[in-house]
Amino acid sequence: MFQCFRNVACLLCIFSVVSVSAVDYQKPGAPVRLADNAAIELVQNETRIVSVRFFVHAEIDRLRVHLHPSEQLRILSSPTSWVFSGELADPQLELEIVAPTVGDFPLMFTVISEQGEMNMSRVLGPRISVRSGSSALNLAAEKPAQEKARTLESGRRIHWVPAQSPQKTKR
Length: 171
What we know:
single chain; Immunoglobulin-like; 4-stranded antiparallel beta sheet; 2 helices; 13 strands; flat
């Protein structure tokens, strides 16, 4: 009987450790993540300097970063490979980008962490979202109008729409 309780207690301990650490789980590879997972917004045919920051969550000697060229994005910055020492907490890259095509595209990086004789790699790709037009007015016009909704006590939702001016009919 005591053996059964001990086994159940061990299982509960194991599951509690797994459930707590599952929040910070990352697949095996370089201990590097993108510091910001939000899409990078660009306007078609507009040159813009974009910052990509990496978060290193373990002690490493060196971090090598390689940018993979994209057919949909033109990178005007000259280097495509960078090396950072392990003392730099969160490495950051500045890229000058032009996007001639509207759409969503990945900006692919291979990162390799070096710790002693052990090298680990990971592929990271922030999403580049390219919109048409060159002004803020065009960007605002592309966004769909948000409907205003009201929920009654019964749970029924009513959508409010602006009233239209009455049209005069000719007889």
